[in-house]
Structure formats: C-alpha cells, structure tokens
C-alpha cells in the first residue's frame, strides 16, 4: 500500500472458510494484517499457513494480547451468523461489524430479535465464490471486479458503511448498495434459483446408464457446473431466503407447466397440428435469449457479442499452454474460453471468444502457426 493511500482498518475475520480466507489473502495483498478467528483450530491455522492473516484466539476465548478491531467481518455459515454478529457487537463496542452471508433480511430480523445495536452493523455480500469450499480453495483475486453488495438503512452509522466499503474496494470489488429486501429478491433470481436448477438437472443424470451419460457434451456441463455444491451450506442459504426463492420458483413452475402442456400436444409426431404449441416452445427459448443478453460482460461492463474461433487441441501436455502463447504472440486478447472434449477422441476443441474484429486476424495467425481450425 502506498504511503499516500488511506490506511486500511484493523480487520478481524471470524470464519476461515473460502470467503473468510480469501478476504484475508486479499487484504494482506493490499497491505493489511487481518486477525483470523474460528471455532476450528485446524481451519484457522490452515488459513494462517496459507497467508490469510495472523492467528487470533479460538472463537469464544479471551482476546487479550491482540489488536482491537476497527472492523469485524463475520464469514460463518448463515445459520449461526446472527449470533456471531451480535456477540461481536457486544465484545467490541467501538467496532463496525459486517457479515458476508448470501441472505440479508433474515439475519437483520434475527439481530433485531436479539437486541443487537444495529447502528454499527452493516450487512454485506460479496458476489463471488467457487465450486470448492474451505480455506484451501481461497484466492486473493476472488473478489476482483465482482460486486460487493452493502445493505445499510437509515439508522446505520455512515462511518460504519464507509469502513465496510473501504475494505470491499481494497480487495478489488465494486460496491453496490441495496436494501436487504432488494438484495434477497435479486440473489434469489441470479444465484439461488440457478443453483437449484443446476442441481435438479444434474439429478436427472444419476439414474442414466453409463452409455447415456457418456453422451454428455459441453451444454450439460455448463448447465450443471455449480451442481457440485455443499448441500449443508445451500440448505441454510435457501431456508434463509425461502420467500424470495419460492416466488421465483413459482413463476418458473408456471412457465414449465406451459412448456410441458405444449410438448404433450406435440408428442404424437412432427406433423401434429397442435395450434399454439410451437409458439409456446419458441417463446420459451426466445425469452431465454432476452434474459441472457442482460447478463453483464467482463468487469460489469455492458454485454458484448463475441466471435468464437474453434481450434482443435491435441490431448497431450503443453498443448493448451502453446495455444495461449500463440494467441498472445498474435496480439489478440482472449475474452473467454470453453473446452469441449470429444467422446473417446484424442483431442478436444477450444472455443476461443474474441471481439469480432479480431476473429479474422486470429484465424490467420493460428493457421500460420500450424493449428487446425474446427468449422
């Protein structure tokens, strides 16, 4: 951190899983020295060993000998977050306390019930994560370019809000302000229901034969990528946002019922007349196109239409690295990448996304370097 930069607050991180440890790593990279605390000695010593901060006392033990926090970040499972936040507000009467749980309304409701001093509490939620859990999966760049939602209300101390936003920006996030209800409705649609949808689709694969599953391509991999998530954690998240999730699922169910009805009208053959049925199917896909087009591009920018250049990549060590190097030497910025592995084939296809103007030059450069393009 440069000498002219605003000093970061002294941060205590309670909970040293993926998010807590990643915050610690990011803060250390920004020049801070967070203190780590957890009920599990193994969890917090692992986070310490990985470079996420210095060890504090085990949760529930005496704090003597450690610096007083300016900001306490509670990164515990949602079902214990309210009690941990309330305890932190009591233990450190001069500190701001935030939590990073993915539900906000129910936590604030429980804090009111517990009689916690809410003027120093700032609910927040970094919109970042991974399919893997625990400190071993933590990364210092996890929050870079990602939204960090801050949920304050009229009674919140403005200095407390500023402190949380200062730390969010220090780890590379883009701060967004919402009310707890706005946050919970938004994440139900963009995070919680997608998780359920991925899990439900993936569950359809379980009874299939090995031959049938072997036909799976990149499409089903994309749809089910987040299905390998922690059932315990997600049960807590969904229970904590039950009302908002139920509302989105009810709307989804109504549309599914329409699609199921249309398919029933068409199941007797392609020459079936079935007035209106095909329009229902077309509208479902078209509405999906419209929704997909609203997903922000890189770094929160407006959505961008990219051109895909498909390259055949042999399945052997170093080939993908060679492709990346050749793209870099051609002076082309790779916007996105998807790998599709052929069933039983000794190669895959790398779908390289670039801005449209770069597609032609990239194809020429790759052909000149001996790569085979896949049409």
UniProtKB/TrEMBL annotation:
Pathway per the UniProt entry: Amino-acid biosynthesis; L-tyrosine biosynthesis; (4-hydroxyphenyl)pyruvate from prephenate (NAD(+) route): step 1/1
Group of enzyme by EC: oxidoreductase
Protein name (record): Prephenate dehydrogenase
Enzyme Commission identifier(s): 1.3.1.12
Gene Ontology MF annotations: NAD+ binding; prephenate dehydrogenase (NAD+) activity; prephenate dehydrogenase (NADP+) activity
Family designation: Belongs to the prephenate/arogenate dehydrogenase family.
Keywords, sorted A to Z: Amino-acid biosynthesis, Aromatic amino acid biosynthesis, NAD, Oxidoreductase, Tyrosine biosynthesis
């Amino acid at each position: 951190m440069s000498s002219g930069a605003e000093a970061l607050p002294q941060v205590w991180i309670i909970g040293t899983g993926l998010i807590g440890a990643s915050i610690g790593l990011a803060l250390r990279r920004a020049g801070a020295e967070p203190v780590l605390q957890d009920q599990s000695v193994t969890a917090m010593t692992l986070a310490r060993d990985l470079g996420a901060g210095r060890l504090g006392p085990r949760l529930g033990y005496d704090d003597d000998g450690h610096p007083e926090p300016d900001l306490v970040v509670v990164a515990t499972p949602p079902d214990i977050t309210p009690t941990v936040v309330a305890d932190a507000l009591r233990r450190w009467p001069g500190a701001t306390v935030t939590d990073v749980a993915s539900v906000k309304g129910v936590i604030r409701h429980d804090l009111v019930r517990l009689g916690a001093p809410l003027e120093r509490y700032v609910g927040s939620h970094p919109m970042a994560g991974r399919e893997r859990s625990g400190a071993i999966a933590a990364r210092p760049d996890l929050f870079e370019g990602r939204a960090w939602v801050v949920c304050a209300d009229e009674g919140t101390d403005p200095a407390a809000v500023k402190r949380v936003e200062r730390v969010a920006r220090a780890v590379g996030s883009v701060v967004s302000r919402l009310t707890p209800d706005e946050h919970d409705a938004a994440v139900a649609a963009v995070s919680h229901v997608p998780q359920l949808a991925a899990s439900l689709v993936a569950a359809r694969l379980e009874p299939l034969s090995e031959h049938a599953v072997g036909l799976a391509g990149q499409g089903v991999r994309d749809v089910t990528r987040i299905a390998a998530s922690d059932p315990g954690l997600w049960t807590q998240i969904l229970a904590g946002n039950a009302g908002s999730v139920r509302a989105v699922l009810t709307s989804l169910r109504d549309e599914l019922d329409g699609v199921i009805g249309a398919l029933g009208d068409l199941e007797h053959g392609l020459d079936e007349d079935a007035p209106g049925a095909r329009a229902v199917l077309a509208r479902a896909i078209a509405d999906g196109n419209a929704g997909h087009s609203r997903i922000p591009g890189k770094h929160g920018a407006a959505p961008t239409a990219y051109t895909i250049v498909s390259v055949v990549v042999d399945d052997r060590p170093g080939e993908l690295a060679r492709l990346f190097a050749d793209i870099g030497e051609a002076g082309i910025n790779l916007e996105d990448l998807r790998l599709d592995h052929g069933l039983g084939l000794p190669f895959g296809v790398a779908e390289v996304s670039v801005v449209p103007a770069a597609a032609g030059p990239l194809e020429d450069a790759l052909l000149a370097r001996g790569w085979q393009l896949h049409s």
